[in-house]
Amino acid sequence: xxxxxxxxxxxTRSGFGAxxxxxxxxxxxxxxxxxxxxGSLKMDEFKAxxxxxxxxxxxxxxxxxxxxxxxxxxxxxxxxxxxxxxxxGRVYDQIRxxxxxxxxxxxxxxxxxxxxxxxxxxxxxxxxDIGLMKMLPGMTVINTCDYNQTxxxxxxxxxxxxxxYLRFGRPKVANFTPEDQNFEIGKAVQLTEGxxxxxxxxxxxxxxxxxxxxxxxxxxxxxxxxxxxxxKPLDDKAILDSVSKTGCVVTAEEHxxxxxxxxxxARVLAQHQPTPQEFVATNDTFGESGxxxxxxxxxxxxxxAIVKATETVLKRK
Amino acid sequence: xxxTQQLQDLTTQVRRDxxxxxxxxxxxxxxxxxxxxxxxxxxxxEIMERNDSFDMDGIGEDLFFLSNGHISPVFYSVLxxxxxxPVDELNTFRLxxxxxxxxxxxHEGLPxxxxxxxxxxxxxxxxxxxxxxxKLNNDNHLxxxxxxxxxxQEGQNWEGIMYAAANNVDNIISTIDLNxxxxxxxxxxxxxxxxxxxxxxxxxxTVVDIENGNDIDAILKGMAEAKSLTGKGKPxxxxxxxxxxxxVDFMMHTHAWHGKAPNxxxxxxxxSQNTETLGDY
Lengths: 317, 281
Prior knowledge:
Structural class of chain A: alpha/beta
Number of helices of chain B: 10
Low-confidence stretches of chain B: none
Largest sheet of chain B: 5 strands, parallel
Distance between the termini of chain A: 22 Å
Number of strands of chain B: 7
Radius of gyration of chain A: 19 Å
Oligomer: heterodimer
Order of helices and strands of chain B: HHHEHHEHEEEHHEHEH
CATH architecture of the largest domain in chain A: 3-Layer(aba) Sandwich
């Protein structure tokens, strides 16, 4: 099977920061807003390079979303930056009315998503944001898997006209996708070929899916791993093509199973090709304090959990 | 000098539009709409520098944002009568397949509307964002916005109001419709806000009072003063004292017509108090 090399752990949020820095140099219409988390979002360099295009709004996320919506009028492309929790749940109605319903070209960039935010605990670990955002008409929802992909996605969404939710995280994780990749919104990336099971993963769970595929391969099970970086619009065809071959699927995400990637995949399968599916996701629960690795283990969001889910789904074929 | 009589005639016609629009669909918000008729007419006919055709980006012209979107009847009437879309389209207010939604939106592409509003308290932020972009674009035109007084109870307003002064957004004139009424009653009964002037001043805004916000001359004078105060490092707020339901005697000085349409008989009385001037749609 095809294997991937971790070129060194890096945080996805730094990929966002690097992408934003690049955009600052190449697209003068890009502006950035931050609600008192410049360091956490890695927006320092953009701010230093383009102080006139950087807006510190203070701890006032609702205002930040509205400002961003208004800034599009006159041709700017605003990128807002704060934690995923404060990027979505806290400002849902502002995004709904001023951005999504108003068709505004705002890029909502959300770091520290999911359990891997770690020690701060459940107040900050949102596991519902994908669901919140994918339900908004016209909203594109992206959850990138590593540094390189996050950088590429950040650059790509500036060229896409329309509201985008870009979700990434805090911890340093494997960086394994190509540095010079062409990020295509809505286009799944098939990472390995396999015949026994399809593993559809997003965000931090993509690397875990690759690790699981290696373990499964050792057991004689061939897994087809698909990186779904875009949850909406979902690449239905890539999923359907793969499950027609494998006959079962495991979905994996750092999110509640309610409202997440798994449900989106289940919807496609139920409609076109009913297929046994297992969900690697949190089970309708809040998180808690702990290290990222401890939390991913406790809540069943790692390679081991994907292997177990595969064993279960294979029996249902 | 503007021809005040022409503006007055237009205002009377706008009042008729408002009454007929909400009556036809037996829904909508006539009270606040009537109270702001003189303001909208003055704004679109005299105060704003605007292009005849609508362009979302609005570069090289003044922009207006309505935050309290429920007074859509007055907004739609004045937009139509200022040439943004056919006056006949006012017939479609709140009907299925209409561009004239209950609350204003860009979604159906109605010319003149730049953002959806209705869920209250979001207009300050949006208007401020547009003002920031005007500065980035070296566009010296102004951003105007209108907000209800009850609407100021929403917290997001104060995030924006704080931001504006801190960042010297001095190319904005935000008007508060001080009619003292909200759906459940007088603002002083629902949630007394104390001195709105003191609040804006404490937040670093320059405040202009228009004591009679239903008098066109007073509006033109007050808004001219407000305009003269822009570009001086501070955002400008206009406190526009209006009478909810103005121009229809039984609708005045009460919250009762905030969100209620007149019946046939009430419509007839209202129209009789506002004689047709420019022709009904």
